[in-house]
């Protein structure tokens, strides 16, 4: 579990293809590897990866083909910057929101509108995710916890403050660039629970025979 507060702007050292469309990814991140051990979780652009090895400020992780297909990690190359965050520790402050590191889909930057103190960035998102995105709600973009400023039918906008622009990859994203999206997991659980209750209610009505004694 993560919070969406990026700890470090790291760099892809290399991506080595392995069997079954998977890959071994090497990432440079002196801060996040300072206490990293085999089996630890580190989010890379919002994707939860498991550390295989860590040494000299670089860690490696196996990335399955499914992850490469469902996220923007498959497009990364050596030298690309990436947002890094270690798994949250119990008892620490929750500066962002609850983030699983399980990417729901890939979005796309469609516009950037600079202002004096911040920048409004608009993203297109997959239609299947639109119902989970609400104004003033939370969303994770490339591992960054952000508040939704505006919502459209298939797009949404966020405001990026100078710190986010400077210390994460979002400051350099251009129009057309892909981004990893993770919607608020609470919304998905609520949908599932309400759906089950509605199904049970419908079943009860269907199963009722009614009549006069």
From TrEMBL:
Under Enzyme Commission nomenclature, its number is 2.5.1.9
In this chain the Lumazine-binding repeats are located at 1-97, 98-194
GO molecular function annotation: riboflavin synthase activity
Function description: Catalyzes the dismutation of two molecules of 6,7-dimethyl-8-ribityllumazine, resulting in the formation of riboflavin and 5-amino-6-(D-ribitylamino)uracil.
Q: Which reaction does it catalyse?
A: 2 6,7-dimethyl-8-(1-D-ribityl)lumazine + H(+) = 5-amino-6-(D-ribitylamino)uracil + riboflavin
Lumazine-binding domain spans which residues? 1-97, 98-194
Is Repeat there in the keyword field? yes
Quaternary structure (record): Homotrimer.
Species of origin: Micromonospora profundi
Q: Which UniProt keywords apply?
A: Repeat, Riboflavin biosynthesis, Transferase
Class in the EC hierarchy, top level? transferase
Which biological process, per GO, is one annotated for this protein?
riboflavin biosynthetic process
What name has this protein been given in UniProt? Answer: Riboflavin synthase
One family name in Pfam for this protein: Lum_binding
Task: Report the pathway entry.
Answer: Cofactor biosynthesis; riboflavin biosynthesis; riboflavin from 2-hydroxy-3-oxobutyl phosphate and 5-amino-6-(D-ribitylamino)uracil: step 2/2
PANTHER family assigned: RIBOFLAVIN SYNTHASE (PTHR21098:SF12), RIBOFLAVIN SYNTHASE ALPHA CHAIN (PTHR21098)
Its domain of life reads: Bacteria
């Amino acid at each position: 579990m993560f919070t969406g507060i990026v700890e470090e702007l790291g760099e892809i050292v290399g991506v080595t293809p392995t069997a079954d469309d998977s890959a071994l990814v090497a990432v440079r991140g002196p801060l996040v590897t300072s206490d990293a051990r085999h089996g630890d979780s580190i989010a890379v652009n919002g994707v939860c990866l498991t550390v295989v090895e860590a040494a000299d400020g670089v860690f490696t992780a196996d990335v399955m083909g499914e992850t490469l297909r469902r996220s923007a990690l498959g497009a990364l190359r050596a030298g690309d910057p990436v947002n890094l965050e270690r798994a949250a520790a119990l008892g620490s402050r929750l500066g962002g929101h609850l983030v699983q590191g399980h990417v729901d889909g890939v979005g796309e930057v469609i516009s950037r509108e600079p202002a004096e103190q911040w920048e409004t960035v608009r993203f297109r998102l997959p239609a299947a995710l639109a119902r989970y995105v609400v104004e003033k709600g939370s969303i994770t973009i490339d591992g960054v916890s952000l508040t939704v400023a505006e919502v459209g039918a298939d797009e949404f906008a966020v405001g990026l403050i100078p710190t986010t622009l400077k210390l994460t990859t979002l400051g350099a994203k251009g129009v057309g660039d892909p981004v990893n999206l993770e919607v608020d997991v609470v919304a998905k659980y609520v949908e599932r629970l309400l759906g089950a209750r509605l199904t049970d209610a419908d079943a009860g009505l269907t199963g009722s025979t009614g009549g006069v004694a």
